[in-house]
Design a protein that fits this description.
Low-confidence stretches: 1-6, 9-13
Order of helices and strands: HEEHHEEHEHHH
Number of helices: 7
CATH topology: Protein-Tyrosine Phosphatase, Chain A
CATH architecture: Alpha-Beta Complex
Distance between the termini: 59 Å
Largest sheet: 5 strands, mixed
Number of domains: 1
Strand content: 5-15%
Length: about 210
């Protein structure tokens, strides 16, 4: 019988729609989640888990969290305005092709999403601080690499190596062991490992 490889959509359906990776990060006091596109697109699910911020790791995946019908642009089919969820985007490729600086930037974007202080102005209506979701298309490679890098850098006593953090995230995300070789993709793990060195140098110099 011919073996048919599962599509990314079939694989992502087998994972939890939303996975709690780390509860109450000691530096930020918030829960950290990972999901694929299905979880990141479910506003009701995000609200039930107190999620106020989404960090999208993918370059080829976009969401529209704007629900106010009066903020429609003059371009047919597009909408702009303050979203129901604060949304940051890293734009990684799920394979080779990402510069190391982009993974470094991804780490700092995630930190900025947690540390940024928004002004008390009508144009910034979403100032709540709650849980944070990191997503990519399947929630198994790009998001795993970025979250593992973040945990390794921010909690070095608990995750002294990137591999320690990757192993922890895989278990929390409930990734099947027979897929660990590609969750995250080795090239992304290597990029994150090198990015950790850059980040430590930047933090030490700041």
């Amino acid at each position: 019988m011919q073996h048919l490889e599962r599509t990314p959509e079939q694989q992502s359906r087998e994972l939890p729609k939303l996975s709690l990776i780390y509860e109450r990060h000691p530096q930020y006091g918030v829960d950290l989640f990972i999901s694929g596109k299905e979880g990141a697109n479910d506003l009701n699910l995000l609200r039930r888990h107190g999620t106020t911020t989404v960090v999208n790791c993918a370059v080829n995946l976009d969401f529209n969290f704007v629900e106010q019908p009066q903020v429609v642009s003059d371009h047919e089919g597009s909408v702009y305005g303050p979203g129901e969820i604060r949304h940051y985007k890293i734009g990684l490729i799920d394979d080779a092709g990402n510069p190391e600086t982009q993974m470094v930037a991804g780490h700092y974007i995630l930190r900025a999403a947690l540390e940024q202080i928004l002004p008390d102005k009508p144009s910034y209506p979403r100032r709540e601080r709650g849980s944070i979701l990191v997503n990519c298309r399947g929630g198994r490679s790009r998001s795993v690499a970025v979250v593992a890098l973040f945990l390794h850098i921010t909690l070095p006593d608990e995750f002294p190596t990137l591999d320690d953090a990757v192993g922890f995230v895989r278990l929390k995300r409930e990734l099947p062991e027979n897929e660990w070789y590609k969750a995250p993709k080795p090239v992304l793990a290597d990029t994150a490992r090198r990015a950790a060195g850059w980040i430590r140098m930047i933090d030490a110099a700041s």
